[in-house]
Every structure is written in C-alpha cells, then in structure tokens.
UniProtKB/TrEMBL annotation:
Species assigned in the record: Halobellus litoreus
Descriptive protein name: Flavodoxin domain-containing protein
PANTHER family: PROTOPORPHYRINOGEN IX DEHYDROGENASE [MENAQUINONE] (PTHR38030), PROTOPORPHYRINOGEN IX DEHYDROGENASE [QUINONE] (PTHR38030:SF2)
Family matches, as Pfam families: Flavodoxin_5
SUPFAM superfamilies: Flavoproteins
Lineage: Archaea, Methanobacteriati, Methanobacteriota, Stenosarchaea group, Halobacteria
Coiled-coil residues: none
Amino acid sequence: MSSFLILYGTGEGQTAKIAERIATTIRERGHEASTIDVRDRPDSFTFEAYDAVVVGASIHVGKHQDEVCDFVTDNRDALSGMPTAFFQVSLSAANEEKHEEAAGYVESFIAETEWHPDRIGQFGGALRFSEYGFLKHLMMKQIAKDLLTEDRRTSGDIEFTDWDAVDAFASDVAAFVEGRLGVSPDTTEDPAV
C-alpha cells in the first residue's frame, strides 16, 4: 500500500471534484490518498508522509493557477525524487478541435516549472453559469460556443469532464506507482465496509 497526495488548484471547483475522484479511485485500489487545495496546505507541509504526488491545475484565461506553478517550481527537486503525475482541466480538452491547444498549455507548464511528471492527464472542465455574473456569463458563453449544443444552452451548469477518462488516469497512475515502488495494493480490507 502506498500513500498518495493529490494537490490541486481550482478556480470554480471542477479541478477539486476531479482530484476527489482520482483519490477515490486510488483508494479503491487499496492505497491511501489525500487531497489538498494548494492554497489550504499547512505552513509545515512536507512530502515525508507521501510515496507519490499528483498535481492538478485548471486553465483560466490561458494560464494555470500561479499557486500551483509556484508550488511545483519551489518543490521541483522533491517531486523529481518520487513518482508523480499532473492533470490539467480546461475547456480546450473537451473540444476535439482544440486538443492541440490543451497540450500546449501542458507544455508551457512543464517549461515554466521545469518539472517532468511521470504521467499526464487532460480533462474537460465545467461551466458554472449559476455562479457567473452577467458579463462573465456572456464571456464564457462566447468562449465555449463550440461546446454548447442546442440542448446544453438552456441546461444551466454544464460539465464536460469524461469521468471514465479520469478513472482510467487514476488507475494508470496507481499501477505506475505500484510498479515503480514494487508495492501491491492493499486488498485485505473488505470494500463493502
């Protein structure tokens, strides 16, 4: 059994939701998993309690959260010494025609932080129209016009996350860590409990 940290930055909550889903999938494989919003980590934070780290960030106006970039840059050496993964959440990842744009954001993140995670995942985000003011609502509707089909335009908040892809990513990360550290998942617990 290994201990995973899923550390993330979120703007409107979808990255946090994805981080929790990754943690759940990892726990279902018999490992420990903790999620922490990068802005809420304790001042005394260390990596000592963790065998592997998954970092998540979302894209807003073409940029990842500064707090996530700073955290990764400041802790690059520690991250390089352990199994790691990175996941990015963006509307571009949900649009087949913009996958290259989404990949470009990942490349920019890697270049900026000089960190090379072992695994990378890209997931579609969400539109939280119920939380937007009038101007942001109009702006986000324009940005996401290619994703908004007729039936989605009137349905309020819209989620573009492919949860099967999130589960597959989490399982792949867990399997990679198991192989790299030579550990097996803890299957002694009764999953029904």
